[in-house]
What does this fold into?
Amino acid sequence: MTVTHTPSGVTTSRALVLDRIRAEGPVSRVELAERTGLTQAAISNLVRSLLDEGLLIETGEKTFTGAKGKPRVLLGLNPRARCSVGVQIGADWIVLVLTDAAGSVLARTRVRGARSRPPEQVVHEIGAQIDLMLTLTNVQRNLVAGVGLVVPGALDVNKGSILASRSMPLWEGFGVRSAMASVSSLPTLLDNVATAAAMGDFWSGAIPEATAHCTLYMGASISAGLLLGGSIYRGSSSNTGPLGSVLFRGDRQSGATLEEVAGPRAVAERARAAVSAGRTTTAKLSTDQDPFSDFAAIATAAVHGDPLSIALIEESADYVADAVVALVNILDLDSVTLAGPSFTTAGSLYLPLIRQRLNHEAFALPKHPVAVRLSAQITDAAAVGAAALMLQHSLSQPD
It folds into this structure.
């Protein structure tokens, strides 16, 4: 069974109630009615149904409304009522996670990436890893909502395939969603990397105060996932946020994209050019000129104070900050999270520079601040978010 997306902005009452309880923790029926806008009768019916299904539990906690008021019983999400698998397929690494209904990671594994291997072979290997993960965690398959799947490139989410991918050209046109559903025997949903990472931030409760949020995701390229008013913004085809491909400076003949001036490959190329010109660095660059290994080495050296590495990371961070400032001002964002494997080590260096730029250049700063933070799941954010997307879809559907 494959899963397609519901139209952007469509939220069932059931999903609304579950999202509120998940994000805010134990709440009473009265508080749910106040915060969702639903009637007391509607809340009573929904809560009764969700309790019967085992998705909600009465926590045993109570709040008191006054000396004579009847205590209100608090409701919480039952974290083991559902589990979900998140799969992030990348050229260099494939990440799999198993999460519970509260978004907690129960298991995680990484395997070799999909760059030069046939898609069919890779998908079958992932299916075997899913089986192994469920066996080792003793999670019954009937409790697994499904597989949330994220892949790099432009997607056709209706067909469940990759339209174009610079890092995984062998996968272009391959029906990855139906193939994953077949080998796993689980419902499967396909989405883009940055959108999944943004959903992971929301589902984990890391951005409860955010009205308009962006998760900036940097792996091999740079992209942005958007949550506006608590709902994922997907655009017309679920291909939002490819910041790395945006022309950043110059004209169309001589200009460069953000990825070409700020991405990991650009940083690695500038490091090698600097070393060739006689600069010294403590960064241990790879013998095979792997730009992503080189970027990780540069980030590590920068954290330890290497002057050349610091200068290279700060140059990249300044370009990235230009893009973040533009997004914040255009969309009036009040929250930004940095996620993705390229921020695993370097995030602590990008964060203060982006925060400083926003503190000076955010247009709506007289009205509200912009919170900037690192994702709680920096490296695996997209896989965790993919599992969250599948959970959200499953929990919003009646059994």
Q: What stands out?
A: The chain has three domains: 2-77, 83-201+381-395, 210-374. The two ends are 15 Å apart (CA to CA). The chain has twelve helices and 18 strands. Residues 6-10 have pLDDT under 50 and may be disordered.
